[in-house]
Amino acid sequence: xxxxxxxxxxxxxxxxxxxxxxxxxxxxxxxxxxxxxxxxxxxxxxxxxxxxxxxxxxxxxxxxxxxxxxxxxxxxxxxxxxxxxxxxxxxxxxxxxxxxxxxxxxxxxxxxxxxxxxxxxxxxxxxxxxxxxxxxxxxxxxxxxxxxxxxxxxxxxxxxxxxxxxxxxxxxxxxxxxxxxxxxxxxxxxxxxxxxxxxxxxxxxxxxxxxxxxxxxxxxxxxxxxxxxxxxxxxxxxxxxxxxxxxxx
Amino acid sequence: xxxxxxxxxxxxxxxxxxxxxxxxxxxxxxxxxxxxxxxxxxxxxxxxxxxxxxxxxxxxxxxxxxxxxxxxxxxxxxxxxxxxxxxxxxxxxxxxxxxxxxxxxxxxxxxxxxxxxxxxxxxxxxxxxxxxxxxxxxxxxxxxxxxxxxxxxxxxxxxxxxxxxxxxxxxxxxxxxxxxxxxxxxxxxxxxxxxxxxxxxxxxxxxxxxxxxxxxxxx
Amino acid sequence: xxxxxxxxxxxxxxxxxxxxxxxxxxxxxxxxxxxxxxxxxxxxxxxxxxxxxxxxxxxxxxxxxxxxxxxxxxxxxxxxxxxxxxxxxxxxxxxxxxxxxxxxxxxxxxxxxxxxxxxxxxxxxxxxxxxxxxxxxxxxxxxxxxxxxxxxxxxxxxxxxxxxxxxxxxxx
Lengths: 249, 219, 172
What we know:
The complex is a heterotrimer of chains A (249), B (219) and C (172).
Chain A: H1 2-13, E1 21-30, E2 33-43, E3 48-52, H2 59-66, E4 74-79, E5 82-83, H3 89-92, E6 95-98, H4 110-120, H5 126-137, H6 152-164, E7 170-174, H7 182-197, E8 201-205, H8 209-215, E9 218-223, E10 226-232, H9 238-248
Parallel strand pairs in A: 3-8, 3-9, 6-7, 7-8
Antiparallel strand pairs in A: 1-2, 1-4, 4-5, 9-10
Helix pairs in contact in A: 4-5, 5-6, 8-9
Chain B: H1 3-20, H2 23-43, H3 45-48, H4 52-76, H5 80-86, H6 91-121, H7 127-149, H8 161-185, H9 194-217
Helix pairs in contact in B: 1-6, 2-4, 2-6, 4-6, 4-7, 4-8, 6-7, 6-9, 7-8, 7-9, 8-9
Chain C: H1 2-11, H2 14-46, H3 54-72, H4 79-105, H5 119-165
Helix pairs in contact in C: 1-2, 1-4, 2-3, 2-4, 2-5, 3-4
């Protein structure tokens, strides 16, 4: 994994390298209705793209397709320069996902959950890595509690830890700030910044335009399954962006 | 990561969860014992002797279906299955791990049910021959049940579809094993090829489940 | 039905799902005919409607297998999921058939083990074989065409809007 990181950093300097995500004309039909209609999206190394949009605009579906959990009905998706529809285990191991739901086992403790996924990802020194991740999400004191006993916000932090266990190069997060208090949200923002500083890329679905402007290089606004606006976030005043995303939604 | 280690990690995860929430195992064993008692009352102890295999099968089938249903529900809760599918683990290994956990749970509940049967019916189980036949039968049943437990969430009937799909498929198992146990009680009858059917069933459906699980897991 | 199910998993096109469905319907119909005629014959020959003879049991299990397919099918709402679950079940059920056959052979048999037909009867048999197979194929084809026509009518709006959207490829 560390070598993969190094490659990622070198890749940022090398323009010829393929982007982390290259989606062309992604469409998804569910139950005879279009959820996504011809979405193009490119994410480069250590970039962060924020997806804005109302409920039902297709953010979650797009993230599920990017994570290889759902197949697109049409279109082409390349991850790390490889065809994602033939995604093998090695490709999946480079992606970390924070989902709408916790994706954890309630009856297991925080530590057991993290250890299980550490083993499944074939990490060496799982115990040490679990300790690191617990520190990262600030849950050292609750490690032996079952996830069932945690509040929604704390459980969400475990879920974030699970997504980061295997040091993914691409982090896909579907509204990860939901249910987090101010302190946890700040912690997550710093985790996202740290992830990018280490050469990782992020695709982040969110409702909060100001947050999108703070964290992302680029903002894509989804409406009715299409990208209605796709611009660099930096030059934008957060308030203007929020107003814009509201008017589009 | 090596397949065996992934399977061990996943299966022990399932067993740990089930031992934490003990209700399920208790419920399944209780249900099986109830089935045996109801049949004991209905048939009377004299009639039961050679029918042991059939009576136990009814109990195994119902408790087994609930067992498969519950172990898969653990994955559906909080969408833990998505995290599992994202991990670099072969889907066939997920299947084998689930199957292993189901088999351990069913062996446990099966033992309780069988002991109850021996107590109430004075089953003459012809000991090892019987145990071998039933073990082969349970492996085949668990192979089919684990496979189709992956798709019950997509039906409106929920858990109701599982027996509907699994019971007809398992009829050859039940037929073969009951005939063989009957033959054990009647020395003049020989059932040749009974083990062949059981072993063939196990091999065919273990392989089929291993290959097909992937398609049923897709959300 | 087996072939259609394999083809669906391979290519994921709806037409294979319809074909498998049509074949399952015809299989249920035929095994029901076998069951009923068998029962009538058993009444005449042995004086009872139902005996647990291996052959009757075999047809009964087949009938249950494919009936379960038809019962479960409409309870799955998502078309994609339905097709996939049904395809897997179709394959598994097909693999089950020889096992059912061999397990029923373990039972005590009342049927004559080998059938010695009079020559005249053999001719009749072989004459019957072709039309029955043709009837079978014909019925599958009719059911398939009906399914396609129905779904095309339903899909008409969807595909029209799909074209209006201008999405390349659309859904298979």
